[in-house]
Design brief:
- The protein is α/β, with parallel strands linked by helices.
- 31% of the residues lie in helices and 25% in strands.
- A four-stranded mixed beta sheet has the order 22-23-1-24, with helices on one face.
- The site of ligand EPZ has 23 residues, from helix 1, helix 5, helix 6 and helix 12.
Amino acid sequence: MDYLEIEGGAKLSGEVEIAGAKNAALPLLAMSILCKGDIKICNLPPVHDIKTMLLLLENLGASYSYDEDCATINTDKLDKTEAKYDIVRKMRASILTLGPLLARFGHCEVSLPGGCAIGQRPIDLHLKALELMGAQIEIKQGYVHASAPDGLKGATIIFDKVTVTGTENIVMAAALAKGETKIINAAKEPEVVQLCEILNDHGILIKGIGSDELIIHGRDRALLQIPEITVIPDRIEAGSYLCAGAITNSTLTLNRVNHSHLISIILKLQEMGYNFDLHEESITIKPSPKITPIQIATTEYPGFPTDMQAQFMALALMADGTSIIEERLFENRFMHVSELSRMGAKISLNNSIATVEGNAQLFGADVMATDLRASFALVLAALVAEGTTRVHRIYHLDRGYDRMEVKLAKLGAKIKRLSE
Ligand code: EPZ
């Protein structure tokens, strides 16, 4: 198994290219099930989750070719409707095939994703919404068996909680349903917006894109033709590199970003004292003479993202005072706290609230990555720790960060990938 070895104390400088967004690419890959002919999806990040989704599509009978950062997918011969446990257990986002498979074939069998390191993560809201659209759902032997022999029908759905993949699943199901589907309390994340915009540009009328109320006019199982699309930049990868610049107090430029997706992250960093230069598709973070402590509560977009909570916790360790970080989305997304503590961090937890003492003197240690974003937080802490840190179980990082150690090394970090 690979691990990362990081020598703390190096200043960073230079430019880093931000990849396409994993969490935008995954629903777009699942959307290929709604299409006929070839669909070419570009700016795909070369990360494991993308390969897993392509493998899942191939298992279902689709064909694809992969070249540079584009995949050309054809689902004309897709003839299986079972998303197997072996793949779903590797990647929860496999659940994104549920809506499209059911809408196109009138039935499907998708393994239940089960729990996950950051929380229980149920899919009850996805299932309830599909039932309102006329599906019959049964859970048998760990699988969701969904059927709607006469096709899905438009319905009014009110999500009890804002759910990103839930909204994406239902938008895709509604695209091939009969009639109009209204989603109230829809997610507004840029990844959801991109999916809606692409569908809207290719024959599915969707009103309210970017708002929390969507109206989708279904095409009653008439497949779509979408020749070529490009995935939006990864706002969480960008935010993570901004934190790398911030924690090492370096000047870093990130290219191929969309600032409008980064507002809550930029505002928090500004509150902490950092300054920025913004250009059309790039952003430069500059050092801060004093790092001010912060208060953060994670919420849905456009609020502060849960996917940046761990990285800001590492950064808060360098602040001049005590920061308060509240995790409101996932009940167990503080696994990095005990690993950061092994490096000398003083963080106390009270349910969903972490109190983070600043001015920390971190030292290198062996630590374990626990989930994707927590792993980046450990790397951030290692960049400023005294001595050598080894981050183990980095398969989490490989699921969602594009060649992270290569990008950080190019910026001047002393980081190496080694095998146990
Ligand atoms: C998406 O997960 C992202 N994954 C996550 O990215 C991200 O952390 C999360 O949204 C929140 O922004 C992808 O886009 C592939 P939710 P998702 O449904 O859709 C509860 C990363 O690191 N809920 O929006 O699974 C749920 O438990 C990750 O890249 C229900 O109760 O998250 C949570 O408390 C990890 N029932 C809240 O809603 C449901 O049926 C929001 O979860 C669905 C969700």
